[in-house]
Amino acid sequence: MSTEILIIDDNTEIRTILEEILIDTGYITRLAANYDQALTEIDKKLPDVAIIDVKLDKSDNDGIELLNHIKNKNKDIPVIIISGHANIEMAIKSLKSGAFEFIQKPFDKERLVNFVHRAVENINLKNENKSLRSKLFHSFDLVGKSQNVQSIKDQINKLAISDSRIFITGPTGSGKELIARKIHKKSKRFKGPFVILNGALLDVKKYEEELFGEEKKDGSILYGALEKASGGFLLIDEVTEIPLETQSKILRVVIDQKFKRINGNHDIKTDVRILCSTSKEIKREIDQGHFREDLYHRLNVFNINIEPLSKRLEDIPLLVEYFSKEICKNYNRREFIINDHNYLLNYNWPGNVRELRNLIERIAILDTNNDQIKILEIIKESVSKSSQEVFSISDNLSVPLREARENFEKEYLTTQLKKFGGNISKTAKFVGMERSALHRKLKLLGVSDIN
Length: 451
Description:
This protein has 451 residues and is of the alpha/beta class. The chain is built from 21 helices and 14 strands. Strand 1, helix 1 and strand 2 form a beta-alpha-beta unit. Helix 6 packs parallel to helix 7. 30% of the residues are buried.
C-alpha cells in the first residue's frame, strides 16, 4: 500500500510545490487549503504523515491545533510543521506538542524529502512493532475440547449475527478479550473498529474523558472511546471498576443511544455494539453496592462465562500444541513438542491461558533444540513448587495414615479424571483399575461429577 501524505497550507503555490515534490518521490498526496478543510480531511481518513503550516485562516496556531487533533486520534502519526514566520518559541511549542519535525520556509527540497522519508520509516516501524506485538494474540483461535469451550464457540456463532449487548465473565487471563474479538470478527461490524476501554487501568479522574471525550477551551476535540468505536465494537473491560457516577451515565447512553462530550452542548448519537467483561463475581459486586444492578441488566442481554483453565484440564494438551505451533511460526524456529504433561496438568494455573501461553513462548525462546530435559526444567522453574505436587505433604503429616491415604487417592483420582475430561473408561485404563472398581472408589471417596 502506498504511503499517503496530507498537505495542509493556505498558500496555493506552496501546496502545489509540495505536492509535485512528493508525487515525484513516489508518495500519494491529499490537500487542504484551510482549517475547516483540514479537519474534514483528517476526520475522513487519517494520513500516514501530515505536513501542516502553522498559520492558516483562523489563528496563528491553526497548525498546532490540527497537530493536537491528529495526535488525539492517533499519537503515532508523524506531523511535520512548516512556517514562514518561524521562531525558536514556535519550534519548541510544536515539538512539545508532538511534532515529528519543524521546518522553516523557504525550505530546501532535499531536507524536506529527507524529513518525510524518516517520518514514513518511523510510522512504518511503529506499525510493524504493533503488528508483531498483536499478531500472537489477535490471530489466536479459541482452542479446546472441553464442554465449556465448545459451548462458547456455539454462543459466538449465534450471537455474532445480532447487535445485542454481551457480558463476558471469567478469571483474569482466561480469554475474555479473545472471545470479544471473535464475536467482532464474525459480526456484520467486522470492518468497523474494535476499541477497548480498560476500567482497571484508567485514572479515576479520567473515566468520563476517556469514554465520552472532551471539547477543549481552545476549540480542539479529544475523542472518547464511544466515538472512536463508531460503527464497530466497544469492549469495556473490567467494567466493575468504573465509578458509580460514571456507571449512571453509561446507563443513560445505553438507554438513549446518545451522549455529550465533556464541556459539549450537542448530543452525539451512538452507533456502537457494547461488550463488557469482568473477572470479578458480578453478583457480589452488585450486592456490595459496587455495581448498579439496573446497568447490569441492560448490559447482560447475553452472558458468556469462560471457566478457569484448572477446570478444563483436557484443553491443556491442545493449547500446548497450538501455542507451540503458532509461536514457533512467529519466531521462525522449529516447532517443539512437550512429551511430559504431568507438571502442566497438576498445576492450578492462576494466570490461566495467558500464563500457559507465556510459558510456551518462554520455551520457544530458551530452547532451540527440542531438548525434553531443558523443556522440563523450564516448566519446573515456571510453575510454583506448591502446585507441582499432586497433594500437599505437609497437610497430610498431621493426620492418621488412613486419612492421608484417602486424601491422596481423592486428589490423585480427581486430577486424573480432569485430565481425561471426566471420562471414566479412559481414567480407569490409565490408573490400572476396572471401570466398575473405579466407580466404587470414587463413590467411597465422595468424588462426584467433575465437569
